[in-house]
Amino acid sequence: MFYLIIALMILGYYIFAAPKSIKNTLTMIFMVGIVGVFLVLAILSFVHLVKSPPEIFVGLIMTVLGVWSLKDTLELKTRRKSKIDRENRRGF
User: Fold this and answer.
1) What domain of life does the UniProt record list for this protein's source (predicted)?
2) Whole-model pTM?
3) pLDDT tens-digit readout, 25-69
4) How many other C-beta atoms lie within 10 A of the C-beta of residue 54?
């Protein structure tokens, strides 16, 4: 709670009382803070993902392989039947 109050005080100073030269510096400090928060959240989400049951990963891999195989199947080109193919089929 203490840090929240300090953060609100700094934010209030930034919005209402800071001169232009200090605003540029504080903007960079806020950007570094935001990047740090996102980095911590990314690490925590990765740790949470690793703790997931293995069935989720198997299902995800099966879904990716299924979509990939459907994509390849839809991209297949139909082969034109040549005269030789038609003659070979008559013989069987």
Assistant:
1) Bacteria
2) 0.49
3) 888 888 999 999 999 999 999 999 889 898 988 999 999 999 999
4) 7
Q: Which two tokens stand for residue 54?
A: 């293995």
| Cβ contact 14:23 at 8 Å | yes
Domain boundaries of the chain, sorted by first residue: 2-91
Mean pLDDT over the full length of the chain: 86
Cβ-based neighbours of 30, under 8 Å, separated by 6 or more: 14
- Say if CB 26 and CB 14 are below 8 A apart: yes
Q: Does the CA dihedral 14-17-24-29 come out positive or negative?
A: negative
Taking CA 4 as the corner, what is the angle to CA 17 and CA 47, rounded to the nearest 5 degrees? Answer: 130
**Amino acid at the residue 70:** L
Name the token pair of 38. Answer: 């996102």
